[in-house]
Amino acid sequence: MEKVMTSLLEMGFPQQRIELAIARTNSHDLQLLMDWMMSHEEELDAASAAVADENAPSTSSLERPARTETAGLSKSAKASELTEGYEITGRIGALAIEESDEEIEECVLATVTRSFICDECGDERVFESTEEIELHTEESGHENFTDLMEERKQLTEDEKKEELALLEAELRRRRLEKEAREDEEDLALKKKLIRIRADIRILEAKKKYEESEKQKNIQESKKDKKDALAAKRRVREQIEADKLERKMKFGDAPAVVNEPVATKPEVPAKKLSEKSSKVKLHIRLRNGTTLVETFGIKEPLASVRVFVEMNQSDGPFNLMTTFPKKVFTSEDYEKPLEALGLAPAALLIVTKP
């Protein structure tokens, strides 16, 4: 909860609104709380106004008795009390309470700020703050000051009305400035929320894409492993088949092959079928080495050429047979071994082109 509260405060949401949103939604989900506050602005504004009315200062808190007598007090106490007294009553006090804003109260206080002059220095200097009076008292030792507020008590009714009108105008100006400032803050907050939501959507989309890519890579890895195992199995099966064929062709088959098989006539047929589908080639290289390899009867001569290229590095070459003598051309490489008369076995010689 504290983490969610901190995040919302950093985004600019007032704590009062956050607490109200948590109470209404009964949730601590960041996105849910943001959506609720955005869709219930009027309710939040009303709640904020109600709290402000409860916390607004009363008229009595703004009324203080005017004091003019300063003789006989200590230097610091006298200087503090000289600026303490002011009086706000009637319509002005009501307006200040209605606004319930510290800036409005400061406006009223600034309008009725009292000024003082030092009796010992004369009218040469006017003091308008406690700090100025205390500083002057410490520097000069003067203790007697006259309150200029007394002169204002002699204002006529028209002058009082004029001052009241000016003060009301100032209050209205402050109120309008406050409303404009709040509108700007609300607009800035909305823009910030829009950016935050966009960032959240981008992060969610990125996370979804990364998860999808991760699953895709896992599936591809599984498929690659499966294909590799299948390829290895096929290679092993081919090797075993080649071994069996060699044993059967060259009479090196296991003893069990020589046992009576009169009751199984299908074995010779299978053996004949396997022989007829393979071509065994003896290939003599230019360095005198002889290679022995088995190929499919339907494979083209190009397969044999590729096999020779992989097992020798003497450069370009041709393939030929000695009986009957024939040098194979580029057209022959596309023909199957059976069509070239190389089945079931033959000797090929590698020569220079």
From TrEMBL:
GO molecular function, one term: K48-linked polyubiquitin modification-dependent protein binding
Subcellular location: Cytoplasm
Sequence ranges of Low complexity compositional bias: 46-56
Highest taxon above the source species: Eukaryota
Residues in UBX domain copies: 274-350
Keywords: Coiled coil, Cytoplasm
Region (Disordered): 45-80, 211-231
Domain UBA: 1-40
InterPro entries on file: UBA (IPR015940), UBA-like_sf (IPR009060), Ubiquitin-like_domsf (IPR029071), UBX_dom (IPR001012)
Gene3D superfamilies, A to Z: DNA helicase RuvA subunit, C-terminal domain (1.10.8.10), Phosphatidylinositol 3-kinase Catalytic Subunit, Chain A, domain 1 (3.10.20.90)
BP-aspect Gene Ontology terms: negative regulation of proteasomal ubiquitin-dependent protein catabolic process; negative regulation of protein K48-linked deubiquitination; negative regulation of protein ubiquitination
Gene Ontology CC terms: cytoplasm; nucleus
Name of the protein in its database record: UBX domain-containing protein 1
Organism: Ceutorhynchus assimilis
Organism phylogeny: Eukaryota, Metazoa, Ecdysozoa, Arthropoda, Hexapoda
